[in-house]
Amino acid sequence: MSYNFTIMSPTDTPLFTHEFGTSRSGGDGIARFTTSERSLNPFILHSALDVVEEVQWGPSTSSGSAPMYLRHIDKYANSYISCWMTGGNVRFLLLTRPRDEALGGTAGGGGVRGSLAGGRSGLAGAGQVYSPTNAATEEAVKNFFVDVYEAWVKTIMNPFFHVASGDVVKSPVFRARVAAAAKKYL
Amino acid sequence: MNPPDGAPRPPTYPSQLESMVLPKQRASPASSLASLPYRTSNPSLHKLFESTASLSGSRASSGTATPTASVVPGSVFSPGSRQNGTGTPVALPPGVSDEHRILIQRAFVPHVAVLADAETEQFIRGKGLEGGLLQLLRPFGESVPGKVTIRDSVGAGRSYDDFGVRFVGANDGLGLPLSAGRNSGLRVSTETSRDGGRVSSSSIRPRRVGGDVAQIEELVDRHLQYSEFNAHDPMPDYFDQREASAPSDSSSSPFYTLFLKRLLSGLPLVPHETFAHPVASVIAVSSQSPDPIEELRSLYSRQTTGDLRLPPWVENQYLRYYVLVDDEETGDIAKSKQTFDAMKRHFGLHCHLLRLKRQQCIPSDDDSVRLPTCEWMSASEELAEIQKRETTDDITDPTPYLPDSDVTAIKTFIRELVAQSIIPNMERHTAQWNEQVLSRRRGMAGRFMSISKRWTPFGGGRSSSSSASSNSNYDSNQGFYRNDAPEALMRKLADYSFMLRDYKLALSTYDVLRSDFNNDKAWRHYAGAVEMAALSALMPTDRLPSKTRVDSIDTWIEAASYNYTNRQQMNTPYYALRSLACSVELLRLRGGSAADDGARWSSRILELGLVGPVGSALFTERASACYVVRSGIGSMRLGSRRRKAALWSVRAAESWYRLDKALQAEKCLDTALRLYGSQADAGEVVKGLPFPEMQAFIDELRQQILGLRLANRGFDDEQNENDVEDSLVVEEATETLDTNPRIHRKSLIGAAPPLMDVGPLSPTLERGEEIKKDDQFE
């Protein structure tokens, strides 16, 4: 399972990008995108914004207030996109690329246990298929986003950081926090 | 039951398909020609590629597409946004032509079998048409001259001027690999008996039956190659393109149209649909024969009981149309008239006297007319034709010419055949079946019957006599309904009304059939019924509630593609591809969220691996086109899919590049850049692509395409290679100067190459090594 976490400004430019792999079930936290996948990721993330906007402005699915966590919103080939919106219309996008064997194409790899986000519910079955709408997956992604959001709010509270003018986040502390959240939940 | 997304399976076409690929293909000199950069391009060859040649001209040819701003009043929250996907092809989104809807409409037309006696065939071959009467009639049948009026089931008449029929050989569609083994024996015997009498120039006769995706791909590839190597002086093109850069972004490439057309031509004769079953048959005899009436009888009996008899799932009592072919010059008109009168007495009204000239016509003759090219020939025929012309050095056009009077005679004949015999006959059948079969099945008793068939206690008495396994009309061992079973008649009724463009009746009939086939577990029939149900729901031009679309049509398309591909022993990817491709087109025309679905289905085509490399590039491009159609609402263009469209365009460019098709790749890349660029005009200036990685990727792709294009144009030798390198080097050196990525094509002619904008990129993303100070805010 490999992830690409990107923060998009309201003007669709990336403010922060972090790639990591799963740390669950023996994962080493290193992203394993192939070269072509890696070059395609920005395109996929960018194109997901179309759907983000639609979900954002479309009829609300939850009653009452608009949620910040938009859950799984888009899919391209084998990449799944989840989104979190901040109040300032900054979009957190998480691209998930499940391992090949978790896609259901082949029989599950022998003995390799999926991560939590990969769906713990299916642990019993050998060939567990990754499902982005799985409750456990959604919860894990949500927790990750909540942690990142906290760090993000602290970052933009910095008076020298001009989020409105599209400043890129360069703080290593922020990066470390994202990595920690990733390690903790994904 | 979504098929797994990963690991696209290779297309699994029945192995027999491979044997259908023209056997001589690889061995022929043409194959070595194909690998040469410059190919003999004689005028007659060029004619063959005309259908796609418009591309090498300018793209602006798709004229009508001037995108007008779609001004939808109100915000997204206005009711306007709720109309997503309910748009109609009448109110097409701007810049979208419904050419493909018309194409689909023209693809499903009545088939007419042609059978002639030896004398007639000889007479026509004497005129220079090797293919005999069939070759003579075929091109003219594709569009019936004048308007044709069709009455639908409620009696309202509508006129169409693009109606046509397909003339096919007496048992052309048979022996299709898709209908597998059982028929093959039959086919062999009939083929040999038919070929026995004729002088066939080559052992490989191109098949008039389509349904072979591999061949379609090969054909499109040929066309692509031709356009790559024969793109006439590309420089002016680029200037043209820049001028017309407010482009018809939804214009479809001619290659896709070609693909679709060949996909839909030469429908095979199969049990589960009756489109290719003959609606009528033309039986022709020559006036020279000693006893024409007797000759007609023997031909007729060949069809009903003899060697040309169709399998039991094809109804044999179709309309016979008797034609007396007369020689205008040497024939004795009085005698022919007499024979003709005798024919009328014997056979009734469905007779015609066709008078043709005997002598062979040459292009320089006064009133000579070129035999039109067949528009709906199958891929293998066109391939064979291309090969034939490539290998001959002859620069003259081998197409036969006809005297003007012959053309007029044939057109009159076809008009009479269609307007006075075929259509009334079909209308009559439709009305009759509608009354006798469909309404009975739909009525109270019919429902009861269908229930009682399912629950044996009720129908026990009846079922005990029939076979133990089931009491339905479906023969599950051989996989067909007999031609007189109510299901078969209803399917015929539905197909007839589809061909007569009465989509409402067709839809309701398919709907009944759907459940019947499902109960009988006749999976392929079921797939056929849901496929056509989806198409006939999408074909009409009126509004379609979004809910219906999502609820029923989507599930139908899904069911069709699933049942065509995933059932054991019935793996017919051709049909799955056909249903998906048609649905994509029709959904796209509806705009809004329907176009979204269209894009989804075309990505499904890719996931299922129904197409080869060329096809997948085409469908990737198509997905992009589907997203483009969805234009969004209001000044913010909310709900538009530009970014998605751009993504798919980039993917398409990449696939074309991998196939060495530089022109196509470049076109897609331009589309993508335009789509990315057009987001800027929402207000703030965005000069490049948002991600530096994206920009780098695109730059690199463009360089590669440029190199490929030069290579394709023959700049292979060292000096030119240096040129390429030079231009690349120069380009890199000045990389930060320019902002218009498209200008750099000028580097081809050695002008100062203006460049890609890597420089003024969007706010720089974090670049570790550049950053000396960290803003550690804590």
Automatic annotation (TrEMBL), chain A:
<dbReference type="InterPro" id="IPR011012">
    <property type="entry name" value="Longin-like_dom_sf"/>
</dbReference>
<dbReference type="GO" id="GO:0005737">
    <property type="term" value="C:cytoplasm"/>
</dbReference>
<dbReference type="Pfam" id="PF04628">
    <property type="entry name" value="Sedlin_N"/>
</dbReference>
<dbReference type="InterPro" id="IPR006722">
    <property type="entry name" value="Sedlin"/>
</dbReference>
<protein>
    <submittedName>
        <fullName>Sedlin</fullName>
    </submittedName>
</protein>
<dbReference type="GO" id="GO:0006888">
    <property type="term" value="P:endoplasmic reticulum to Golgi vesicle-mediated transport"/>
</dbReference>
Automatic annotation (TrEMBL), chain B:
<dbReference type="Pfam" id="PF12739">
    <property type="entry name" value="TRAPPC-Trs85"/>
</dbReference>
<feature type="region of interest" description="Disordered">
    <location>
        <begin position="183"/>
        <end position="207"/>
    </location>
</feature>
<feature type="compositionally biased region" description="Low complexity">
    <location>
        <begin position="27"/>
        <end position="37"/>
    </location>
</feature>
<feature type="region of interest" description="Disordered">
    <location>
        <begin position="1"/>
        <end position="38"/>
    </location>
</feature>
<feature type="compositionally biased region" description="Basic and acidic residues">
    <location>
        <begin position="766"/>
        <end position="778"/>
    </location>
</feature>
<feature type="region of interest" description="Disordered">
    <location>
        <begin position="458"/>
        <end position="477"/>
    </location>
</feature>
<dbReference type="GO" id="GO:1990072">
    <property type="term" value="C:TRAPPIII protein complex"/>
</dbReference>
<feature type="compositionally biased region" description="Low complexity">
    <location>
        <begin position="463"/>
        <end position="477"/>
    </location>
</feature>
<feature type="compositionally biased region" description="Pro residues">
    <location>
        <begin position="1"/>
        <end position="13"/>
    </location>
</feature>
<protein>
    <recommendedName>
        <fullName>ER-golgi trafficking TRAPP I complex 85 kDa subunit-domain-containing protein</fullName>
    </recommendedName>
</protein>
<feature type="region of interest" description="Disordered">
    <location>
        <begin position="755"/>
        <end position="778"/>
    </location>
</feature>
<dbReference type="InterPro" id="IPR024420">
    <property type="entry name" value="TRAPP_III_complex_Trs85"/>
</dbReference>
